């Protein structure tokens, strides 16, 4: 990865965030996020779409100092002690509302940065010195509606905003097998490979209608929450300009994909 020159269009990322423990562990996934942060450099701000914030209607975090949310259960105390004190960004809140108008976008002062956001951001920007705004996912929207919102956010990339979707292409927790830390089930690997090839071919819209993609998709996406952030990232893709890079395309514990996707503008050296 080569560092982007200053004053270029920002890339778009989809990060397979996996276990919250990745926030405090140094492994191949957390190292890859650190590498991406060094390559991109510091954006003006980050707009984060996380699997862990779904609402009725669309909202953005409007807190000047968003709290670190520990939205998980039985993990070590060190994980609950972790904080990511990045500031909010009122200017970005206004820009998001402008991009999505006339759709109503609520300003939320109660949410903060959930682990889908801070567990990856703490590796991309460990100093927590880049402002972060989270965009919620409206449970009333269709997959095509989420993808369209991503398209409408694309202009933010030219304003120094790094758009990140955080989830997992394959996320079936009930099927996970802890004795398979470095392997994926055949169906999980096939679906991850299908998604990778489809993105590489620029056929993003095939992935929007994921309920029609068959049994492998059904097993890989038993609920939509971790898959939908990918559609925001693909929506914000400039199909005529962006190059694609796949980072850690690997399935673990049978039914969890840790694949991340970076969409790089052509100005990247």
Structure description:
This protein has helices spanning 28-40, 77-81, 90-100, 115-124, 143-153, 186-200, 204-208, 215-220, 228-235; strands spanning 12-16, 45-50, 54-55, 58-61, 105-108, 132-134, 137-138, 161-167, 243-247, 251-252, 256-257, 260-264. The chain is of the alpha/beta class and 269 residues long. The radius of gyration is 17 Å and the shape is globular. It starts with 11 loop residues before the first strand and ends in a 5-residue tail after the last strand. The mean pLDDT is 95.
Number of strands: 12
Estimated structural class: alpha/beta
Q: What fraction of the residues are assigned to beta strands by DSSP? A: 15-25%
Alpha-carbon Rg, integer: 17 Å
Assign an overall shape. Answer: globular
Keywords:
12 strands; 6-stranded mixed beta sheet; 269 residues; alpha/beta; single chain
Topology readout:
Layout: E1 12-16, H1 28-40, E2 45-50, E3 54-55, E4 58-61, H2 77-81, H3 90-100, E5 105-108, H4 115-124, E6 132-134, E7 137-138, H5 143-153, E8 161-167, H6 186-200, H7 204-208, H8 215-220, H9 228-235, E9 243-247, E10 251-252, E11 256-257, E12 260-264
Parallel strand pairs: 1-8, 2-6, 2-8, 3-7, 4-5
Antiparallel strand pairs: 1-12, 9-12, 10-11
Helix pairs in contact: 1-4, 5-9
